[in-house]
């Protein structure tokens, strides 16, 4: 990711952009929710000089800090968030996750690079357009809930609509609807202080949903919650996503949370991307030793699908046996093979792609399968 870029030096003043006008630019329906290119955020003295300087660019975060007094929180990052996906940004504390998500709506100004939302240049937006972006198109859920302590649950949920200038009756009606949606019915008149942590975060979630944003941004929203409550909230997010299909950017330092929620996961280390892929790709094909260490204890059968676990079918096997879809998880295939007492077929559009048997499935559990992309492709090509 950090090799051949020469564009880091361009400072985005918006001066040459054609989208800087007050009029919102029509969204490009084919564009990703976010397209981020060559993005840097450097904190510290004369931070602007860092991204364009080949000598500084290659220094580690620690070396850079020592030499220049600057911290590169986000380093030369490129990614797209597709519409409708749950895009997880994962990394240890200090890896740049919060900085990154805040640059998306310019709560933190990037040092260099480009960001487009629905094809529209975010760095070219003027104040009014940015306000619109932050109030209507996106909504954020924070770890510390960020609720107004003297307001009722209902008024907290209605807050974003109030800022938008929506009238009282309308915003309360909308808030009521969302309060019910997130399981807080009956608590409308309570203050945040009268709620448990999990309930408070439901209010935070409801407040974000109430403005009906295109994209929900979550910055470690459940990190402060007890494990069981946390699990409940993750289920809630999964349910909401299933029902609404809203684009979500979800930050976490917790691998199991990332695997549970993410359509794709972007793993960050020291401000840079280490790997970006589906949970299955990351667990099956870690990009380096760092990622391998990270995913070492993941129950592979719960993440890896039969598409990766299967072997080629011989002619006799192609027509009989229980059928499994290619995205069936190994854990479920084990049950199918155990129940039927024979190997199962992996079938897509009526075509047998391969076979999973005891041996192949156990190999995944034991972590001794090839499990590589090439293997999957070879089999799929048969
Ligand atoms: N305002 C700031 N000034 C200086 N350094 C900062 C600032 N905000 C964050 N950093 C540094 O940037 C790095 C990334 O921080 P952050 O984005 O908060 O990471 P994460 O959210 O992954 O824990 C850290 O080294 C942090 O100390
Ligand atoms: Mg953070």
UniProtKB/TrEMBL annotation:
Domain (ABC transporter): residue spans on this chain: 59-295
Region Disordered, residue ranges: 1-29
Gene Ontology MF term list: ATP binding
InterPro entries xref list: AAA+_ATPase, ABC_osmolyte_uptake_ATP-bind, ABC_transporter-like_ATP-bd, ABC_transporter-like_CS, Gly-betaine_transp_ATP-bd, P-loop_NTPase
CDD domains tied to this protein: ABC_Pro_Gly_Betaine (cd03294)
Keywords: ATP-binding, Nucleotide-binding, Transport
Alphabetized Pfam families for the sequence: ABC_tran
SUPFAM superfamilies for this protein: P-loop containing nucleoside triphosphate hydrolases
PROSITE patterns xrefs: ABC_TRANSPORTER_1, ABC_TRANSPORTER_2
Keyword ATP-binding belongs to the record: yes
Matches recorded under SMART domains: AAA
Signal sequence segment: none
Stretches assigned to coiled coil: none
Cited NCBIfam families: proV
UniProt family annotation: Belongs to the ABC transporter superfamily.
Record protein name field: Glycine betaine/L-proline ABC transporter ATP-binding protein
Species per Swiss-Prot/TrEMBL record: Streptomyces luteolus
């Amino acid at each position: 990711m950090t090799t051949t870029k020469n564009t880091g030096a361009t400072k985005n003043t918006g001066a040459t952009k054609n989208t800087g006008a007050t009029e919102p630019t029509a969204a490009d329906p084919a564009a990703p929710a976010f397209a981020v290119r060559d993005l840097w955020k450097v904190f510290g003295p004369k931070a602007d000089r860092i991204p364009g300087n080949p000598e500084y660019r290659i220094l580690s975060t620690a070396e850079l800090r020592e030499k220049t007094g600057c911290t590169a929180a986000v380093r030369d990052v490129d990614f797209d968030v597709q519409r409708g996906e749950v895009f997880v940004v994962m990394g240890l504390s200090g890896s740049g996750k919060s900085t990154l998500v805040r640059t998306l709506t310019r709560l933190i100004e990037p040092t260099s690079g480009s960001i487009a939302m629905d094809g529209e240049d975010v760095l070219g937006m003027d104040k009014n357009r940015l306000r619109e972006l932050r109030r209507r198109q996106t909504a954020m859920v924070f770890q510390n809930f960020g609720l107004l302590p003297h307001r009722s649950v209902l008024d907290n949920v209605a807050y974003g609509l109030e800022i938008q200038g929506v009238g009282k009756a309308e915003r309360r009606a909308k808030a009521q609807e969302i309060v019910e949606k997130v399981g807080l019915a009956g608590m409308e008149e309570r203050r945040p202080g009268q709620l448990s942590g999990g309930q408070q975060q439901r209010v935070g979630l409801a407040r974000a949903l109430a403005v009906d944003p295109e994209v929900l941004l979550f910055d470690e929203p459940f990190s402060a919650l007890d494990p069981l409550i946390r699990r409940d909230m993750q289920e809630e997010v999964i349910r909401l996503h299933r029902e609404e299909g809203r684009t979500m950017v979800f930050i976490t330092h917790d691998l199991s949370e990332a695997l549970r929620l993410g359509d794709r996961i972007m793993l960050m280390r020291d401000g840079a991307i280490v790997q970006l892929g589906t949970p299955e790709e990351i667990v099956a094909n870690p990009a380096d030793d760092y990622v391998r260490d990270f995913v070492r204890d993941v129950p592979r059968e719960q993440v890896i699908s039969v598409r990766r676990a299967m072997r080629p079918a011989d002619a006799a096997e192609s027509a009989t046996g229980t059928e499994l879809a290619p995205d069936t998880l190994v854990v479920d295939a084990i049950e199918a093979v155990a129940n039927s007492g024979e190997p199962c077929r992996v079938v897509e559009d009526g075509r047998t792609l391969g076979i999973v048997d005891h041996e192949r499935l156990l190999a995944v559990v034991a972590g001794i399968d090839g499990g590589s992309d090439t293997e999957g492709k070879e089999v799929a090509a048969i």
